[in-house]
Write a structure and sequence with these properties.
By secondary structure, the protein is an alpha+beta fold. It folds into two domains: about 210 residues, Jelly Rolls, CATH 2.60.120; about 70 residues. It contains ten helices and 15 strands. The strands form three sheets. Strands 1, 2, 3, 4, 5, 6, 7, 8 and 9 form a nine-stranded antiparallel beta sheet that branches. A three-stranded antiparallel beta sheet has the order 14-10-15. A hairpin with a 3-residue loop joins strand 11 and strand 12. The chain starts with 14 loop residues before the first helix and ends with a strand. The structure holds succinic acid and cobalt (II) ion. The site of cobalt (II) ion has 3 residues, from loops.
Length: about 375
């Protein structure tokens, strides 16, 4: 994608301008961002999917009055009969990760590929009856809220007071003070940076797609990285040396921590991070890890001479040394690396490009096809 070309999706801004002016900074409302957009899934199929194991679904109802205090939350899977009638106002069904389960939803992510893959979380879809919504809240995500069917009234505003309505199953802002309000029609889109308060209420039957981008928190990232790095330390060359204190004398202060233990701990941490590739490796593995509850079905063997495309569930990223796919890493260089980077960026390689790969890299593609991570394309 040429990120300097203006896009209707971004209201005539180029991705480069959008990222500079709005990303993580301020909201953007785009009227007719996606003219003629259609819901990636129909209502009946969506309700069916909400009944499937492995699909994360939530049902929020506000039946006993308009107040947020009446909000009830249930988690799926839901049989069709356990969902309220569509004619009943004030309920909403939300399906997380629709892009993993439903190809047309995955395809809707393509125009947003000016944001790094490592930041992408998922496409969530919501169906709501009149008056339905999740209430005023904030997310720690960047999100594009695309109206795909019917109308939704959005009220948004910066959040000065983060206190929540107590005793609710969902995090609802107690003192939300919206500063702007819009009625979104099909094709309209609202971008919100993290921590902006928002409240979307369906006006009649409505469907909204949320393209969400995750941001790692310092604590979680540190935990996951250290765990990943510790795993890689078990390699025989780094050695899992044991702490030894041959010169420890008898102590009259057994409660005191031995200085040698501090030095030992410091040394292993320093050694673990001494090679910058170790951190890059751990980061790439984490960022390409498939989402929880994702599994792949083994695929047909890749025929010679075919191109490939990534399965919709596959996550693929790269850095200067490695290519990462679904939590596994490969060292790549030269032409193979360039082609594999193309596969990660475009999510596909033509037959001609596959032909340029080394025999070793083509074998790898074959393994990935067997695992169901990539599929043959025309
Ligand atoms: C919705 O689609 O109802 C909610 C989306 C959001 O507020 O993040
Ligand atoms: Co939200």
């Amino acid at each position: 994608m040429d990120v300097t070309l203006p896009l209707p999706l971004l209201g005539g801004l180029s991705p480069a301008q959008f990222m500079r002016r709005h990303w993580q900074k301020k909201p953007l409302l785009v009227r007719q961002a996606w003219p003629g957009v259609r819901p990636p899934i129909g209502r009946a199929a969506m309700f069916d999917l909400a009944g499937a194991e492995g699909v994360e679904s939530r049902l929020l109802t506000r039946f006993d009055g308009p107040l947020d205090a009446n909000m009830r939350l249930r988690h799926g899977p839901f049989t069709r009969r356990s969902l309220p009638p569509v004619s009943k106002p004030s309920w909403t069904l939300l399906l997380q990760g629709l892009d993993l389960h439903w190809q047309p939803a995955h395809d809707m992510l393509a125009p947003f590929r000016f944001v790094p893959e490592a930041r992408l979380d998922d496409l969530m879809i919501s169906w709501a009856s009149d008056g339905g919504g999740v209430g005023p809240h904030l997310d720690s995500y960047d999100v594009f809220l695309l109206q795909v069917q019917g109308q939704r009234r959005w009220r948004i505003g910066p959040v000065a007071d983060r206190s929540l309505v107590p005793g609710l199953p969902v995090r609802i802002l107690a003192n939300f003070q919206p500063t702007e309000e819009w009625l979104l029609e099909p094709g309209d889109m609202l971008y919100l940076p993290p921590l902006w308060g928002h409240d979307g209420v369906a006006v009649g039957e409505c469907m909204t797609c949320s393209v969400g981008f995750r941001a790692a928190t310092a604590t979680t990232l540190a935990q996951e990285l250290l765990h990943e790095i510790a795993d890689s330390l078990e390699a025989p060359d780094t050695g899992d040396a044991m702490y030894r204190d041959t010169r420890q004398g008898a102590t009259a202060t057994p409660g005191q921590m031995p200085a040698g233990l501090h030095e030992f701990a410091e040394k292993i941490l320093q050694r673990a991070l001494a090679d910058p590739k170790t951190l890059d490796h751990a980061l790439g593995v984490l960022m390409s890890e498939p989402k929880p509850r994702v599994w792949f079905e083994p695929g047909p063997h890749l025929a010679a001479g075919s191109g490939v495309r990534l399965d919709r569930r596959t996550r693929m990223v790269y850095d200067a040394w490695h290519v990462f796919i679904n939590g596994e890493s490969f060292v790549a260089g030269g032409r193979d690396a360039r082609l594999m980077h193309g596969l990660a960026d475009q999510r596909q390689l033509s037959a001609a490009e596959c032909h340029q790969l080394s025999a070793q890299a083509r074998d790898l593609l074959g393994d990935w096809a067997d695992a169901g991570w990539v599929h043959a394309s025309a």
